[in-house]
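G., the chain you wanted modeled:
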Amino acid sequence: MSITVQKLSKEYQTQKAVDAIDFSIQPGEIVGFLGPNGAGKSTTMKMLTGFIPPSSGMATVCNFDIQKDTEQVKKNIGYLPEHNPLYVDMYVKEYLAFVAGVYQVKEVAKRVQEMIALTGLDKEQGKLIRQLSKGYRQRVGLAAAMIHDPKVLILDEPTTGLDPNQIVEIRNVIKQIGKDKTVLLSSHIMQEVQAICSRVIIIHQGKLVLDSPIEDLKKRAGDGFVYLIELETEIANEAWKEIGGVKKVEQQGALQWRISADKDIRNVILQKTVQMNWGLKGLQEEKQSLEAIFQQLTQAKN
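Predicted structure as tokens:
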């Protein structure tokens, strides 16, 4: 496992910021780490990166214990905190070379150029960091987090404060990185998580409330699979209920229906409409938004 967390907790006097959470992340996964403000996301990330100690429980990164093997953990992690700290009076190339030196990277010049190319900083490398837009500053932060070639990247709100174009740019960089790294990504932008991540962990009031692949979230939210269907023939609603797995049928027009099912029945619908000669004009799966699922899970615990 790239990351293993077991009963990890952090207490501040009477407040439990993180309350006995468990999860593990396989090598090569890009996992979205979600939760409302104050849920314990940043605290968890800071414990994993060795910035703060846990109150109880344990965690490993690349099989190194975060408390016993702190130096090894830091060598295997690249961390981009929410408020990206940079030396703004340094030039981009100079700053990356400085960070590479801190990590004792071999062939510093070569590695700096590799990171500049990967993060799209070619035209900005000769500028002072203070002259860069926030989007390019985030790129510098990503380059610095990866300069020592870590196996795991922990990114805390990497697109916060960026405009839509900058968000897309950083998203593409993270996708590229995720091809050979394990990424734990915190974000409040649900579309971003759906576009980048294959799995989602949701934490609320310090407790883990969901750990699921993106594709399974519809089931967890209770609506299962939902299909919008249009036919050439008018039929009774009861005809749909003859299909196994159908939970709910809503007629939305003379020839249109919204059908909820507890499993994927697209192929069965196709076979049924052909068999009965109903004349299928449209079959579309309605994607339940991650935002709606997030609200259900976090509001229910208040």
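The chain has a mean pLDDT of 88.

Shout if anything looks off.
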